[in-house]
Design brief:
Blueprint: H1 9-27, E1 52-58, H2 59-69, E2 74-77, H3 84-90, E3 97-100, H4 104-118, E4 122-126, H5 130-133, H6 136-144, E5 149-155, H7 171-175, E6 181-185, H8 191-203, E7 209-215, H9 216-220, E8 222-227, H10 244-256, E9 260-264, H11 266-270, H12 274-284, E10 288-290, E11 305-307, H13 315-323, E12 326-330, H14 336-339, E13 350-355, E14 369-372, H15 375-392, H16 398-410, H17 425-436, E15 441-444, H18 448-456, E16 465-466, H19 477-487, E17 493-498, H20 499-505, H21 508-514, E18 520-525, H22 530-539, H23 561-567, E19 571-575, H24 581-590, E20 596-601
Parallel strand pairs: 2-3, 2-4, 4-5, 5-7, 6-7, 9-10, 9-12, 10-11, 12-13, 13-14, 15-16, 15-17, 17-18, 18-20, 19-20
Antiparallel strand pairs: 1-8
Helix pairs in contact: 2-3, 2-8, 4-6, 4-19, 10-15, 12-15, 13-16, 17-18, 17-24
Length: 635
C-alpha cells in the first residue's frame, strides 16, 4: 500500500473497529461467542460433515483444522512471516499434504490445475505483501476462466493495517475486482465460518476464486473452535433451475430451426454436464461447436462435432455459427475471440442463452430466450421439452448438414511442412496426443503452441484439456500441470509449453522433482515469442522487434533446455528431426520416476491457421496467408 493511497473500504472499516474489538475481547466470555454444533447438517458446508465439539486452540490451528474438516487434501504454498503461525500446526497435519512451491504464482496456477481436473476447489497459501501480490496473476486467471480456488494469505497484525508496515499490502482491495469475494479476518473466532463460506462461494454458482486474508494476531490468538460453523451469506443466492416457460420457448425455437448450432462453452465443463449435453445434442441432431474452454465436453470423434470456433477455430465451426439461424448457447459468454466483430456475428441467428451467471446473458449479444440456471439442470429439462415438440413435428436439417459436411471435407484442419526443413510444431503436438491417448491430460501455455494443442490433439472426455483462456497467462503450463498431476496422479500429464512461457515458471520443476510429481514437459521451441512473431509477420511487415529468444536452431541456446532439465534432476531430451519425434515421445512416456523435459526444436516460421484477423468479421476467416475459403453460392 503506497503512502497517500486510499485504503479499501473493508480495511477502513476494520481499522476503525480494531481498538473496539480488542477492548471487547478482554471482557467477552469466549465460549459464548461460539455457536453450538447444529443437529441439522448444512449442505453448504463442504467436507465429511464431522461434528467437532467446542475446543480451545489458536487461530492458526483453527485454519488447519477447518481445512481438514472441509476435506482439503492438498495445498500449494510458500511460507513467510505473516503466515508463519499457520505453517507451524500445518506441519502436524496428517490429512493435508503441503507442496512447497518455488514462487507463489506457481502455487496459484497449481491450485487452478488441481481444480480443473478434480472439480474441487484448489487451495494456495502465501504470506503478506509480495507473497500475496505474487498470487494476483493466478487469481485473475482463475477469475477469467471460472476456476474454483481459495487463496489464503497472511496479513500484518491488525493494529498495523494501514500504517505501511513491513510487507503490508492491501490484498483485499487489490483483488476485489478479480475474486468472487475477498475476506479480511482479524478475529480468530471468525476463521471457521469464513473458510466454510469461502469454499461454498468458490464452488457454487459460477465458480471462481475467493481470497481469505488473515491477520497475524488472529492466527496467534486463542479461540474456541467447533464444527460445523454457521454460514451467514444472506445476499448470496444461486439460481440452479431454469424457468420452465423459458425452457419450453427454447424447445419451440429448436423445433422450428432449419440451421441450429450448439454453441458450447466452459460452463458445461464446470457444471459436469457432458452426459446431459450428449443426450440433448443427439436428440436434436445439430452441429456442436466447443470453445477453447470447452474442448472435450463433447467428443471430437462424434459425428456431430463441427470443431472449435473462434479466431483460430476450424472453418466448419466458424462458418456454422455465422450461417446458423439458431444458436443454442450453453455456458458460453460470446467473448470477442469467438465473435470477431460483434455486430457481424451470426447475423441471421436467434439466440437461446443458458448460463448460471445472469450477468453474462445479453451482455454482449441479446438473447431471444434467456435461461438463468445451471446447465446441469437446464439441459435435461430442455431435452424433455424438445422431445415433446419433436413428437408433433421434427424439422429436416439434412440440407444444413450437407453444408457443414462440405465445409469439413473441403477445409479440414491441417498444416504445411515448413520450408526451412525444420520440424513442424503441429506434427509434434499431434503425435503427443496420438501416442498418449485420450486418457491423458494436456496443459498448454499461451501462444501458438496453445492453439495447436487445441487444434491437433483429439479430446474425447472433459477435464483433459487445461489452458489459460481468458487472461492468456504465459507461465501457466508447468505449475498448472503440476497441480493437475497431484489431482490426477494416475494419468499422464503433459505440459505443452513454448520456449518463452517455459522460462517464466520453470523453477517449479524443482517442486515436481522433490515432491515426486512426474509431469512431462514438451517445449515447442521455435526460439521466439511465436504468436507475437506471427503478428509481426502478418501486420508489421516482418519487423521482428524483441521476439527472438535465442533458444533454438542455429542460436546460442541460452538456456540449453536439456542442461536446465539436468540441473533440476529431470530427464532431459532433445528432438530436432522428424524421424525422431515418435521415439522421443515414447522415451518420455516410459519415464515415470521423475519429470521429463523435451526440447522439440521446431520451425520458427510455422503459423497458426485458420485465423480471423483482429477487428474483422468471422466471414473473413483465412485458411492461410491472404487465402480465404471459396464459398459456394448456397454457403
Amino acid at each position: 500500500m503506497s503512502k497517500g493511497s486510499p485504503i479499501s473500504p473493508s480495511l477502513m472499516a476494520n481499522k476503525a473497529s480494531v481498538a473496539a474489538k480488542a477492548a471487547a475481547a478482554k471482557t467477552r466470555d469466549v465460549a459464548s461467542s461460539i455457536s453450538a454444533p447444529s443437529d441439522v447438517v448444512d449442505n453448504r458446508v463442504q467436507g465429511p460433515n464431522n461434528v467437532v465439539p467446542p475446543t480451545e486452540m489458536t487461530g492458526s490451528k483453527a485454519i488447519v483444522r477447518a481445512l481438514e474438516e472441509l476435506g482439503v487434501d492438498d495445498i500449494f504454498g510458500l511460507p513467510g512471516g505473516a503466515i508463519l503461525p499457520t505453517y507451524d500446526p500445518l506441519m502436524d497435519s496428517t490429512k493435508i499434504r503441503h507442496i512447497l512451491v518455488r514462487h507463489e504464482q506457481g502455487a496459484g496456477h497449481a491450485a487452478e490445475g488441481y481444480a480443473m481436473v478434480t472439480g474441487r476447489a484448489g487451495v494456495c497459501i502465501a504470506t503478506s505483501g509480495p507473497g500475496a501480490t505474487n498470487l494476483v496473476t493466478a487469481i485473475a486467471d482463475a477469475h477469467m476462466d471460472s476456476v474454483p480456488m481459495v487463496a489464503i494469505t497472511g496479513q500484518v497484525s491488525s493494529a498495523f493495517i494501514g500504517t505501511d508496515a513491513f510487507q503490508e499490502a492491501d490484498i483485499v482491495g487489490i483483488t476485489m475486482p478479480i475474486t468472487k469475494h475477498s475476506y479480511l479476518v482479524t478475529d480468530a473466532a471468525d476463521i471457521p465460518r469464513v473458510l466454510a463460506e469461502a469454499f461454498h462461494i468458490a464452488t457454487t454458482g459460477r465458480p471462481g476464486p475467493v481470497l481469505v486474508d488473515i491477520s497475524k494476531d488472529a492466527q496467534q490468538a486463542k479461540t474456541i473452535f467447533s464444527w460445523p460453523p454457521k454460514i451467514d451469506l444472506p445476499g448470496y443466492r444461486t439460481v440452479v433451475r431454469g424457468h420452465s416457460k423459458q425452457v419450453r420457448e427454447a424447445a419451440r425455437l429448436i423445433a422450428a430451426s432449419q440451421r441450429p448450432v450448439f454453441y458450447v462453452g466452459g460452463g458445461v465443463l464446470k457444471a459436469d454436464a457432458s452426459a446431459e449435453l450428449l443426450e440433448l445434442a443427439e436428440l436434436v441432431g445439430a452441429p456442436v461447436v466447443t470453445t477453447l474452454q470447452a474442448r472435450g465436453v463433447f467428443p471430437d470423434s462424434h459425428r456431430q462435432h463441427a470443431g472449435m470456433p473462434g479466431m483460430h477455430g476450424s472453418v466448419s465451426a466458424v462458418t456454422a455459427l455465422q450461417q446458423s439461424d439458431l444458436l443454442i448457447t450453453l455456458g458460453a459468454r460470446f467473448d470477442d475471440r469467438v465473435t470477431g466483430v460483434l455486430s457481424s456475428f451470426a447475423p441471421g441467428a436467434k439466440v437461446i442463452h443458458a448460463d448460471i451467471d445472469p450477468a453474462e446473458i445479453s451482455k454482449n449479444r441479446p438473447a431471444d430466450v434467456p435461461i438463468v440456471g445451471s446447465v446441469k439442470e437446464i439441459i435435461p429439462e430442455l431435452t424433455d421439452a424438445v422431445r415433446t415438440q419433436f413428437a408433433e413435428e421434427r424439422p429436416d436439417i439434412s440440407p444444413w448438414w450437407a453444408t457443414i459436411d462440405r465445409l469439413r471435407e473441403t477445409y479440414p484442419m491441417g498444416f504445411a511442412e515448413p520450408e526451412d526443413g525444420q520440424i513442424a510444431p503441429q506434427k509434434v503436438i499431434e503425435r503427443i496426443g496420438a501416442l498418449t491417448g485420450p486418457e491423458g491430460v494436456y496443459v498448454a501455455g499461451v501462444g501458438q503452441h496453445q492453439m495447436w494443442a487445441a487444434q491437433f490433439i483429439k479430446y474425447e472426455r472433459p477435464r483433459a484439456w487445461l489452458n489459460s483462456g481468458g487472461l492468456g497467462t504465459m507461465g501457466y503450463s508447468v505449475p498448472a500441470a503440476m497441480g493437475a498431476k497431484v489431482g490426477n496422479p494416475d494419468r499422464v500429464v503433459w505440459a505443452i509449453d513454448g520456449d518463452g512461457c517455459f522460462q517464466m515458471t520453470n523453477q517449479e520443476l524443482a517442486t515436481c522433482l522433490i515432491n515426486k510429481i512426474p509431469i512431462k514437459v514438451a517445449i515447442i521451441n521455435n526460439s521466439s515469442l511465436g504468436m507475437v512473431r506471427q503478428w509481426q509477420t502478418l501486420f508489421y511487415e516482418s519487423r521482428y522487434s524483441n521476439t527472438d529468444l535465442n533458444t533454438g536452431h542455429d542460436t546460442v541456446r541460452i538456456p540449453d533446455f536439456v542442461k536446465l532439465a539436468d540441473a533440476y534432476g529431470c530427464a532431459g531430451l532433445r528432438c530436432e528431426r522428424d524421424e525422431d519425434i515418435d521415439d522421443t515421445i515414447r522415451q518420455a512416456l516410459a519415464i515415470n520416476d521423475r519429470p521429463v523435459v523435451i526440447d522439440f526444436v521446431v520451425s520458427r516460421d510455422s503459423m497458426v491457421w485458420p485465423m480471423v484477423p483482429s477487428g474483422v468479421s468471422n466471414d473473413l476467416i483465412q485458411i492461410a496467408r491472404n487465402m480465404t475459403p471459396k464459398w459456394e453460392e448456397e454457403d
